[in-house]
Each structure stands twice: as structure tokens, then as C-alpha cells.
């Protein structure tokens, strides 16, 4: 055997061993295209809200990447047999991009969970299944880069041996020799063709069944959780007196001040059994407490129930007559000290300076005009706006009850 014939023989043998790599890559491209189709479906349904929150302003860019990868997988399926090295390299780069994006997504989810735990929210992002997907993506990336070297070798052998081909051509009956080896091989292939097709149908059925199961699992995972655990966690924090933790969960809240007004900042009243109403993405839990009810509202955000607001019972305050008499006596006293003491201790410094400037312009710093009759106006729970007559004009004074007494919270003198 000549050296050239021996070289061609070795090339054919090597080609026979490694050509299946290219068919495997084509199968991966096809499977990835199918996976890409379901990814697009999930992208706009089950995980739509999550990806919008995670990627924010980059949602449009990431959507374009998802669609582009789907198109690349389809084109790769069609052309990988013609250019095995180029399209295997494209596949490796694609899986590298996928792996990087999935790792980036995991890091973003972990950072979001840290932020959510610091604010006392429920942890909304489950990372267990995501970690499994990351392991799969990483293995596929490594396998693709291994296949790149094999595909390069296949393409080199094809270039050096034009008679070799990755295309499977039909047997020409006119060239068949009766009783020859080729005819026997053809007959065996025809006999086993039915079994092969049956095997492919079984594999296809298993794949379709697996996709259906995966779809059901994804649908189940996308169902909103029950609000009961969030209600129980709120009740536990209430019992433990975690006032600041509850307040931090609400973006806009006067929760701490509302407790102080009722005298609950040192000891929270005991909560009764909750009555829960859930409707869509909103839920309400009503607890019975001494003197009324505590209404807690929740909103479903990022697949988890988050505390939205806490409404306490109305403030139960004694009659305001005592506070009005104390204000009249302080008004009569010379200087500003007695008047400033009518304000809450935390606001005396702020309002004291404002009042001194305002009264100084009117010459009321040491002595003030006599107060006439007053009108308490329409009563409100724990709040009152009282009008005092001063000559032919009037002065407006706002009062609020902060346990255990009434305080002045605002004063508007005559113009």
C-alpha cells in the first residue's frame, strides 16, 4: 500500500470515529432551538415580571439576545454539517454567553435577596433550581469547547479528502450488485429502518412528555404563594416588639409615630386571630386588639407577599378642655417659655425659634393680646383645630393627642 493510500485510510478511520461529534452538535443546536422556543414563551409569561425587575432598563436588550439566540440555533441546525468548525465555534461562544448571563443573573438574585433580607421582607427568589441550571449550562459550555477541536479536525479531514462527506446519501439501486455485500447491507438497513423510526418516535414522545412535565412544573412554580406565611411573620414580629423592622418594610410609614400617639411604643397590645381576605395581588389581614382592630395590608411583588401598610385603631383621647385651659394660661404668662412647653418635647426647639421670630414681628414676645371665645370645630380622633378670637380676628391652633396628653402641633396667628 502506497503512503498516500495509507494516509487516506487512516484519515477515513479517524473520520469515522469523530464525525459523530458533528451530528451531536447538530442535535444540540436543534434541542437548543426547541429550548429557545419555550424560553421565549416563559420570557413573556411566567417569568416576565421577574426579568423586568432584575434587568430593569436592559430588559429590551436581553429580550433581543433571547430572540437572537433562538435564530442562531435554527440556522446552526441547518448549516453545521456544511461548516462544522465555524458553527461549532458559534455554538461554543453562544453557550459561553449563556453561561455568563446565567451566572450574572444568579449574582443579581443573590444581591436582591441580601437587600430584601436587610429590609425584613420574605426572600422572594428561590435559587435552588437556578443553581441546577447553572451547572448544566457550565457543563454544556465546556463540552462545546471540547467539540470545537474535534469539529476543526473533521473539517480539515474533509478538506484533505474531498471524497468524504458528512451528508448521508441514498443508495443507488442501479449500482447494486446482486448478492453483493452492498445489497446485503442495504437489505439489513431496510429491515432495521422501521425499528429505527420506532425508536425515534419513542425518543420524540419521551422528549415531548418531558417538555410537558417541565411546562407543568414551571406553571406550578409560577403560581402566587399564599399570604398566610407573611401574615404569621408579621404577627410574630409584632409579638416580639420588632417595631423598627415592621416600619422598614413600608416605604412610606408613620408607624412608629402612630404607636407613640397611642402609648403602644413600649408595649404592643396582644393580637387576636387574623381574618384574612385575599384578592389577586392584594391581601388584607384584620387582627382584633384592645380598643379596636389592626388592619394589615399586603401586596404581591416579585412573587412574594410584601407588607404595604398597617392601619391602627382610632386614637382614644380624653376631652381637650384641659389642653385648651393650659394653652390659655401659657398665653397669659409673659415671655415665650410657657408657650413653647405646650409643644411636644421633640418639636420644642424647632417651633420655639419659629414662634419667637413670628411673635417678635408683632410685639407679642413679652405680652400678648387677650384671647376671646374659642371654637373647637369638627372633632376628629386625637386631633383638633381650635379657633381663638383675638379682637375682630382669630388665631388657629392645632392640637394632637400623644399619650398621655394633648400637645400643640401648629399655630397660625392673625394676618
Structure commentary:
The chain is of the alpha+beta class and 415 residues long. The chain folds into three domains: 3-169; 228-311, Nuclear Transport Factor 2, Chain: A (Roll); 321-412, Nuclear Transport Factor 2, Chain: A, CATH 3.10.450. 57% of the residues lie in helices and 14% in strands. The protein has twelve helices and eight strands. The chain has helices at residues 3-43, 48-55, 59-79, 84-118, 128-160, 181-222, 228-239, 243-248, 255-262, 321-332, 337-340, 348-362, and strands at residues 275-279, 282-289, 292-301, 304-311, 374-375, 383-390, 393-402, 405-412. It has a four-stranded antiparallel β-sheet, with helices on one face. It has a four-stranded antiparallel β-sheet with strand order 5-6-7-8. Helix 4 runs antiparallel to helix 5 (128-160). The chain starts with a helix and ends with a strand. Residues 176-181 have low confidence and may be disordered.
Amino acid at each position: 500500500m502506497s503512503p498516500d493510500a495509507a494516509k487516506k485510510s487512516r484519515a477515513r478511520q479517524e473520520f469515522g470515529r469523530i464525525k459523530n461529534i458533528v451530528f451531536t452538535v447538530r442535535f444540540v443546536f436543534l434541542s437548543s432551538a426547541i429550548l429557545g422556543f419555550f424560553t421565549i414563551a416563559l420570557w413573556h409569561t411566567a417569568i416576565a415580571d421577574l426579568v423586568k425587575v432584575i434587568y430593569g432598563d436592559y430588559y429590551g436588550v436581553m429580550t433581543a439576545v433571547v430572540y437572537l439566540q433562538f435564530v442562531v440555533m435554527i440556522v446552526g441546525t441547518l448549516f453545521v454539517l456544511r461548516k462544522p468548525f465555524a458553527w461549532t465555534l458559534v455554538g461554543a461562544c453562544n453557550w459561553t454567553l449563556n453561561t455568563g448571563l446565567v451566572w450574572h443573573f444568579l449574582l443579581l438574585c443573590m444581591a436582591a435577596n441580601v437587600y430584601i433580607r436587610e429590609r425584613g421582607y420574605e426572600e422572594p427568589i428561590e435559587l435552588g433550581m437556578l443553581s441546577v441550571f447553572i451547572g448544566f449550562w457550565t457543563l454544556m459550555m465546556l463540552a462545546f469547547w471540547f467539540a470545537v477541536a474535534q469539529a476543526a479536525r473533521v473539517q480539515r479531514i474533509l478538506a484533505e479528502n474531498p471524497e468524504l462527506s458528512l451528508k448521508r446519501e441514498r443508495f443507488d439501486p442501479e449500482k447494486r450488485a446482486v448478492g453483493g455485500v452492498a445489497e446485503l447491507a442495504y437489505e439489513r438497513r431496510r429491515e432495521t429502518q422501521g425499528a429505527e423510526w420506532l425508536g425515534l418516535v419513542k425518543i420524540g414522545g419521551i422528549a415531548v412528555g418531558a417538555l410537558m412535565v417541565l411546562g407543568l412544573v414551571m406553571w406550578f412554580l409560577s403560581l402566587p404563594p399564599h399570604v398566610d406565611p407573611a401574615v404569621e411573620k408579621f404577627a410574630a414580629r409584632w409579638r416580639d416588639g420588632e417595631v423598627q423592622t415592621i416600619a422598614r418594610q413600608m416605604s412610606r410609614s408613620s408607624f412608629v409615630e402612630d404607636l407613640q400617639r397611642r402609648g403602644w411604643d413600649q408595649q404592643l397590645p396582644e393580637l387576636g386571630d387574623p381574618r384574612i381576605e385575599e384578592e389577586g395581588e392584594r391581601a388584607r389581614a384584620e387582627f382584633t386588639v384592645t380598643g379596636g382592630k389592626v388592619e394589615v395590608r399586603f401586596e404581591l411583588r416579585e412573587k412574594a407577599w410584601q407588607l404595604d401598610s398597617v392601619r391602627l385603631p382610632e386614637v382614644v383621647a380624653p376631652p381637650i378642655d384641659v389642653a385648651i385651659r393650659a394653652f390659655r394660661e401659657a398665653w397669659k404668662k409673659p415671655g415665650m417659655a410657657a408657650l413653647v412647653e405646650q409643644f411636644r418635647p421633640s418639636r420644642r426647639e424647632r417651633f420655639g425659634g419659629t414662634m419667637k421670630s413670628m411673635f417678635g414681628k408683632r410685639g407679642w414676645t413679652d405680652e400678648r393680646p387677650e384671647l376671646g371665645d374659642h371654637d373647637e370645630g369638627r372633632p376628629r380622633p386625637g386631633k383638633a383645630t381650635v379657633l381663638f378670637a383675638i379682637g375682630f380676628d382669630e388665631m388657629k391652633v392645632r392640637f394632637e393627642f400623644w399619650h398621655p396628653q394633648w400637645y400643640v402641633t401648629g399655630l397660625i396667628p392673625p394676618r
